[in-house]
């Protein structure tokens, strides 16, 4: 899983942070302390952590991920990260 996205709502920059979808690496999600949730009305699941994005980015950097890009989409902040294949 060399690429991943994390995101948060601008008004919630202190958390929670969305760190993955239902197909994300469970070992990585466990490392981040993420919980898998399905919002009422959605037919998909997402992983969330209570940590702010800064702490999530710090954790991901420790295991080799680097930020490739960051943008704002409406009221959402999104980071794209990449990890070199081993």
UniProtKB/TrEMBL annotation:
It comes from Amphilophus citrinellus (Midas cichlid). This is GTP cyclohydrolase 1 feedback regulatory protein. GO terms for biological process: negative regulation of biosynthetic process. Transmembrane segments: none annotated. One of its GO terms (cellular component) is nuclear membrane. PANTHER family: GTP CYCLOHYDROLASE 1 FEEDBACK REGULATORY PROTEIN (PTHR16852:SF2). Keywords: Cytoplasm, Membrane, Nucleus. Belongs to the GFRP family. The keyword Protein biosynthesis does not apply. The keyword Membrane applies. It is found in: Cytoplasm, Cytosol; Nucleus membrane. One of its GO terms (molecular function) is GTP cyclohydrolase binding.
């Amino acid at each position: 899983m060399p690429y991943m996205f994390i995101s948060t709502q601008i008004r919630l920059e202190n958390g929670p942070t969305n760190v993955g979808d239902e197909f994300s690496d469970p070992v990585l999600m466990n490392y981040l302390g993420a919980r898998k949730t399905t919002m009422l009305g959605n037919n998909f699941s997402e992983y969330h952590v209570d940590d702010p994005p800064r702490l999530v980015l710090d954790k991901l950097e420790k295991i080799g991920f680097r930020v490739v890009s960051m943008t704002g989409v409406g009221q959402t902040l999104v980071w794209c990260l990449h990890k070199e294949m081993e």
